[in-house]
Amino acid sequence: MMRGGLLLAAALAVAGCEREELPTPAQIESLAMTAAQRADPAAEQRLQDLAERGAVVARRELGILYKARPASRAEAHGLLLQAAQAGDAQAAFHLGEMLRSPSAGIKADPAAAWPWYQRAAEGGQARAALMLGLMAKNGEGVPRDAATAARWLQLASGLGNAHAMFLLSYAYREGDGVPRDLDKAAALLEESAEREYPPALQELAMTTQDPTRAGHLMKEATEHRRNNWNKF
């Protein structure tokens, strides 16, 4: 009986461990930040453990971490693929980035990147929608198509992407893929500038009739460029 009781207790302990709740996505992302910024091996090992337990966010964050390491590119691809297939939009975006950009002697494959960007954009990832707009506009991996470019830029703009707003303002001004609409063009340019996108600030500075405002906008654009403005 005693031996049987010990076995039962051990089995219950194992079951309890298996039922242990996973950390929240925010906690996993914080752990990933520690692993990346501090090169903390314990944090990275914890991420690996969570990824093996099936935590989608851990697989995504570990994939992003490995993506920066040429020797770990294959592992990064596998982890991001698993997370993207599980519906993680950020993972799909980073998978698209891997496929679109050449790395360690591997050629870029924009055509293969497109469906992952699309999956990410449809999941609410603004940067992915921006990339689809740019790729369609430039004919990268897909046929050049102004209307398709404008459609994805509209989605990115609706998701708050200042770069997309700026590009879309030009599209409406020129009637490129959308009906020409100068009012929409002006409104999008203003909104992009309000979000502190340097090219939009500079464009407004060059077109405004108010010298005081022009000086203020140009100064603001310069400051944001100096601060390496890279938000999408």
Automatic annotation (TrEMBL):
PROSITE patterns per UniProt: PROKAR_LIPOPROTEIN (PS51257)
- Pfam families under this entry? Sel1 (PF08238)
Task: Cite the InterPro entries for this sequence.
Answer: Sel1-like, Sel1_AlgK, TPR-like_helical_dom_sf
Q: What is this protein called?
A: Sel1 repeat family protein
